[in-house]
Amino acid sequence: MLIPEYRDMLAAHKRIQPYIRRTPVRVSEYLNELTGAQLFFKCENFQEPGAFKVRGAANAVFGLDDAQAARGVATHSSGNHASCLSYAAMRRGIPCNVVMPRTAPQAKKDTVRRYGGVITECEPSTSSREETFAKVQAQTGGDFVHPYNDPRVIAGQGTCSKEFMEQTGGLDMVVAPIGGGGMISGTCLTLSTLAPETKVIAAEPEQADDAYRSFKAGHIIADDAPKTIADGLLVPLKDLTWHFVSNHVSEIYTTSDAEIVDAMKLIWKHLRVVMEPSSAVPLATILKNKDAFAGKRVGIIITGGNVDLDKLPWL
Amino acid sequence: MLIPEYRDMLAAHKRIQPYIRRTPVRVSEYLNELTGAQLFFKCENFQEPGAFKVRGAANAVFGLDDAQAARGVATHSSGNHASCLSYAAMRRGIPCNVVMPRTAPQAKKDTVRRYGGVITECEPSTSSREETFAKVQAQTGGDFVHPYNDPRVIAGQGTCSKEFMEQTGGLDMVVAPIGGGGMISGTCLTLSTLAPETKVIAAEPEQADDAYRSFKAGHIIADDAPKTIADGLLVPLKDLTWHFVSNHVSEIYTTSDAEIVDAMKLIWKHLRVVMEPSSAVPLATILKNKDAFAGKRVGIIITGGNVDLDKLPWL
């Protein structure tokens, strides 16, 4: 297991600079009053493809040597990683093959194709996905870029916290949602060196609380098919992300889907940004555990903004 | 008629600095491709009370001498000016009285009250509003801050374009929505001195096209009760805003409500910001008149972000 280091994150930041945005940090006097904390929101939903995942994807894509780049990249994902990897590959002008379940929303498929990604559909099961992916990879020779359990991806995600600390001048805590743990691992990677006094806190949906249970048990627990409105957080931890979570995360909190939707609407109304349910889990966590955050400078990563505007969860 | 000058705008910017945000400028590769122009969106919806109008309101409020400040400010408005003036007054700790039609949306009344504004309700007619406002002003002695036909307000709104030019390094055109003409006048005030080669273009709903018809006729035409989804743009030009529109605006374009809603959804989806229908009129205009904007560096002011999340116009 190759564990990415701080210097890998620094190299990543230099490498991906032309392809990512230094996203703005938003504040709201209203949300500060409501929570009793001083909140800073890093708007990764403002990346061109709408998610922080472009950082890790771009780091993988632009770190390839020319020979490998010519064969392109490949992944399986039905979410933001698929579109972010396609976007990064398009920027480099190399092929990107994506295996997606045929049941994935049409909008997600459209986005991948808009960025030149080639989709191979599979059945919505792990066995079909693995089989299909193996075939695609054998045919294309594309370099496998895992959505989160990849040192290049984690080093890329870590660049977000570096900017966040520069932009805010320091934070007591950073709260990010946890699914597979890519963003949380990148955050741990960066802050454990850059600001070891800043706590890293993970926020997870109650209905997909495998990271919480893993954290308490001391080993990875993976659920079969969790269901939550926070559809970016369904995947389990893997060895590399477990390394960071088990060593550097201070606490994992869980919140209900109803609490997530309430927090999402508050952010839309008062920060006036369009973001997805997964990104609302940190604010839901802070509202549910006010005492743990009161009086603190708390950074929240708004991880993504790809949501179906015709089906908002509060309507 | 006291016409505000460039130095008034500079003084306003200094005065209001602590109470406003230097709002970020957003870009979208997707919207650039779609329009063939290079678009820059200045997100005034990110002001704390959600609209550019806090600039003019804060300039009026913080420009008062102590004696007048003690008596506070007063206005009539059912929209963003009411909440922005209440917000500015709250920041200075002085009274703010607002006359609003009893039919105004509850959410707007709630926002004014949240900022400590005192509402006196009137019937939804001009005569009732004027009568009620005269009474309130006589009782309180509050200084009347008109929503747009006030040199302090126009000088305040002009600070937006100053930041916009600094942030973008120059633009070929700035497009803003036009209702009473406060933002457009401020834009003209600033750019006619700071960047006289930058064209100021106004975008108006077809269904409230009194500014367009005034511009073509060469004198103010006011409609009685226009109806459009762009509910921030219902009011007519007045002498002061007509001065700027007639002297400095290059063109006024109109678009249908359906085009406005389409543009609004595009902005929500690709810029991922929550903004109101009025703020979508510029993009609707550009999409409808692509040839006029193709290849140009075009600034768009996203004027406000106060919208009922339970009643989105495309649903």
UniProtKB/TrEMBL annotation, chains A, B:
MF annotations from Gene Ontology: ATP binding; L-serine ammonia-lyase activity; magnesium ion binding; pyridoxal phosphate binding; serine racemase activity; threonine racemase activity
UniProt-listed Pfam families: PALP
InterPro entries named among the record's database cross-references: BHydaspDhtse, TrpB-like_PALP, TrpB-like_PALP_sf
EC number: 4.2.1.-
Entry keyword Magnesium: no
Record's keyword terms, sorted: Lyase, Plasmid, Pyridoxal phosphate
NCBIfam families recorded: BHydaspDhtseBhcB
PANTHER family registered for this protein in UniProt: SERINE / THREONINE RACEMASE FAMILY MEMBER, SERINE RACEMASE
Name under which the protein is recorded: Phenylserine dehydratase
